[in-house]
Design goal:
This protein is mainly alpha-helical and about 375 residues long. A two-stranded antiparallel ribbon has the order 1-4. The protein has a two-stranded antiparallel ribbon with strand order 2-3. It starts with a helix and ends in a 23-residue tail after the last helix. The C terminus is likely disordered. The radius of gyration is 26 Å and the shape is globular. Helices cover about 70% and strands about 0% of the residues.
Length: about 375
Amino acid sequence: MTGSTSTRTARLSALVRPGRARATAGFGLAAVLLLAVAPVLLSPFRLGLLGKFLCLAMVAVGIGLAWGRGGLLTLGQGVYFGLGAYVMAMHLKLADAGPGGVPDFMLLYGTGEVPGWWEPLRSPAVALALVVLVPAALAAALGWAVFTRRVRGAYFAILSQALAAAFAILLIGQQQTTGGTNGLNGFRSFFGYDLADPVNQRMLYLIAAGVLLVMVVGARQLMVSRFGEVLVAVRDQEDRVRFLGYDPAAVKTVVYVVAAVMAAVGGALFVPIVGIISPADVGVVPSIGFLVGVAIGGRATLLGPVLGSVAVSWAQTSLSEQFPSGWIYLQGALFVLVVAFLPGGLASVVPMLRRRRRAGREAEPEAPAAPGDAPSPDLLPEGSRA
């Protein structure tokens, strides 16, 4: 009887412990704001803009896992974002062209025939599967090849950035099949729904918000799981983890694939919401932009990457209209300042202030007694009492 009671008490305390309660409350508040408040208060244009920011925040969730927890400085997430986006864009162009039809840009720049490797994307099921499988396969192959050779740190960052640059150059050079510098645009429908209809635009926003919330929940489960503990151990002491019998290359590859899939899903939803995808959205500069948002928000936290990414995207949209030539410099300055003076990002400000306040209270000396105050007789030794 006592054992069952203690078990129930332990389960109840696990359910209501501060970390889980705080995470549940934060998730509930975010769900209410994104799914209920934003569609009511924001105009269709602002709602679409927020939907774009949420798609970019999906990339940030994956970077938070790979960089914040795994120590993988991923400067090439634009590759996986672009792969998911271009797979979805190719399907939408084929769907708009109709059965057996040819996308409009191929009539202008190409031979007027659909390439054979485009044809499977006429199927919605195949397109959805390839949005996940193509980036996952590339990330798994690249990650395993790199991590088994113990490439890490700045070398891995440079390699991933070079991959993003090569991918953008490849897209620009294939104008007949990818649209070149113009990219793919002019989508009219999304799985049979008219993209010009405001109701469908709101539906796309709700899908993006729901997918982002699911990703945040999945990221938290990975963080608190045994895999998350091993991932942090690999980040801090990779050699010791190897001596304990774990394979750091496999752990890194798994989190790299997860981050790639999250980026690809964000890219796939970015296409119908924004209406265009081009090499300018997937190259080196966008990849660094993803990283800047994560760093500013707090790469080692759960919601920091999301909030930082949304804040940077909003600032870029707002400030670039007024200072089109100065935004890049401001973005770089923010990144340098955060890395130099606030490595934990903005999410670490409140905990840091709490620690300082707590340390100040502990170090505060006791107030001395006033000169006229006499000790109570009960506190005096027996021999000194009158």
